[in-house]
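Here is a typical sample entry:
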Amino acid sequence: MVLRRLMRANTKEARLLGLQLGPPPPAAVGPEPCPLCGRPLVAGLSIDEHHLVPRSQGGKEKFLVHRICHQKIHQTIPEKELARRYHTWEALSEHPEIRAFISWVKKRPPEFMP
């Protein structure tokens, strides 16, 4: 029942679960790799949206990333610091703890979720 409702609503949650009806939107064809770890993005629960500048700090642009990558970013760096110093993928990947995480997660399958 919930699954049908999601599919009919064609909501963001349905799209992330790969349940969208009809042809995929142009942005969903041949998804880019995760901008943090570089592994392929596979539709489903392993994908999240990340604002490089957090919404609480005025950010609007969002990117698809692995859920595990998104969690690591927010567990490691406070939102104000993300907005001030780590608002690019290059800056994020240079953070020592994030760099170590990228090295570790690159050895995992794209759908990996602990």
User: Anything to note?
Assistant: The radius of gyration is 15 Å. Confidence is low (pLDDT under 50) at residues 23-29. The beta strands are 47-51, 62-66. The CA atoms of residues 34 and 65 lie 5 Å apart.
